[in-house]
Amino acid sequence: MKNNYLKKYIISSYVLVWLLIIFVAGTASLIFHAPPVIMWIVRNLIAWSPTYLLLIGWKHFRPDETRTDFIKKCFSGKIKPVALLCSFFVTFGISMLALFLFSVLEGKPMLSYMDLGSTALPLSIFLSFTSGPTGEELGWRGFMRQEFNRRYGFLKSSICQGLVWCFWHTLLWIVDSDFTDWRAVPYIISNIVVITSITIWMNLFLERHNNLIYSVLLHFGFNIVFVFLDVGIGFFVILTVLHLAVTSVAVLLVRRGWGNAS
User: Fold this and answer.
1) Which of 77, 116, 181, 233 could form a disulfide with 211 if both were Cys (CB 3.0 to 4.6 A apart)?
2) What are the residues whose beta carbons fall under 8 Å from the beta carbon of 68, sequence distance 6 or more?
């Protein structure tokens, strides 16, 4: 496969999401003043852009394989219930631990940082699940992971994937963040570290199970917390340290296990 296929996909995915954010989300918000639920649906449609791009532009990115064969391969691994639960609770658990530590430092109960908002709980969960978790994984962990893995070893490949995925969100840091002053710096650092760490966790599961449902639940376990969370920048600092520490330990243990197995 030609080396420029991956580059074409990455550049195209950035251009597409930025155009959609500016012209679709921007129009819905600034011109039509769409209510929060409608804006949430718009964001979900935009979150699916890596998958739209991959499937519509298939011949430009993977001409030697059919879409059907590719999708079957992405979901070919056996589903194990315990591992599936673990994939969700890895990211969910780290976020909740960060919230617990943040609440202790602030001297407030954890529930005081949770805001259920005006959207019904079942709808909030459904919209969260049908955004990035189901919309992005076929492109990122399906196509992009395979392409990076052809070029690099596990850790370098995972870091490259994480950075691509992370900076794909760049425009959102500007238009959809409460941290626009000095707090933007630790917030961006947190995004880089946390998203890269989550990518490593996804790839650890996928190396063993080869089924995107694991990365979908990892993604969902992270996203669902932030649907209801209203916290200060201190939370993101704690979250960054936890992800860096826990992911580093996991990589060392797993790679040691791989070494012993060989």
Assistant:
1) 77
2) none
C-beta of residue 220 within 8 angstroms of C-beta of residue 133: yes
pLDDT above 90 for 180: no
Could you tell me which residues come within 8 angstroms of residue 52 by beta carbon, excluding any fewer than 6 positions away?
A: 16
Domain residue ranges of the chain, discontinuous segments joined by +:
77-261
CA-nearest of 161, 150, 155 to 215 is 161
Q: Where are the alpha helices (DSSP H) in the chain?
A: 4-19, 26, 36-47, 49-56, 58-61, 67-74, 81-106, 121-129, 132-135, 137, 145-151, 154-167, 170-175, 184-209, 212-228, 233-261
Residue 2: pLDDT over 80: no
Which single residue is written with the structure tokens 């969910």? 92
pLDDT higher than threshold 90 for residue 69: yes
Distance CA 84, CA 92 (A): 13
pTM for this model (two decimals)? 0.94
